[in-house]
Amino acid sequence: MPHTDSTRWTVLLPVKPFALGKSRLAIWAGASRAEWARAFYLDTLDAIFHTPLVQQVIVVTADSEAHVLAARAGAKVADDTPVCGLNAAVHRGATHAASSPTGGPVAVLTADLPALRPEELMQVLTDARHHPRAFLTDHTGSGTTILTASTPRMLLPRFEGASRTQHAVTGAHELIIANVPGARLDVDTPMDLGAALSLGVGPYSTALRSNMRELPLPAGSVRVTPGRGATVAPAVPVPPWIPPVLAAELFSKVALTCY
Asked: Residues 205, 36: contact at Cβ < 8 Å?
């Protein structure tokens, strides 16, 4: 069911343990990659809390520091032990959200969006309210940074790998929004970080970069134009044989596979 203009959202923010995150930054940042993972998380969390349409935030993590930081910011925390991957973390967060008395729609954000702005998230959630399930493609055109659903049981997460295609074929609507570059720019590589810094990041990543000026970013950083947003790949056809009701049924049977 489409949501109203006054709909307020629950946001799930799965967070991998900082020591395990951002392995592709290691070639540039070395051991400090954990510090970058922490900064990305805090900037993403900060942007979420400054978005008026958000009524509660549930951080899903097995990291004790992320847990403390979430509670300090005012977020609820769902335990992600053992660590079983992003989709399992979303499933755990959705179970937590389903038991919440607040109700309402739910959105999942990746915790590596340091350039995300509250007004961008507002636009994404405003557009998503028209669809039972929806998602926002990342800046590469193959991944997903935001997944939304009318209820927690409807999420059916298919993050990791070619998640854009996976979310589309399970019936989620692809949101085509031009002016949300920070919402699309998940940072996995040094080039991604260069693009995010050029676009403008939150206070935590800004402070960390100021302390690491001796580490030059590589040339050829990803280009993201603030006025137009990242390039959007052509829409993926959605098979008519997977209606939203079936998606919810499938989600309820997703097994948690740890690896």
From this structure: yes
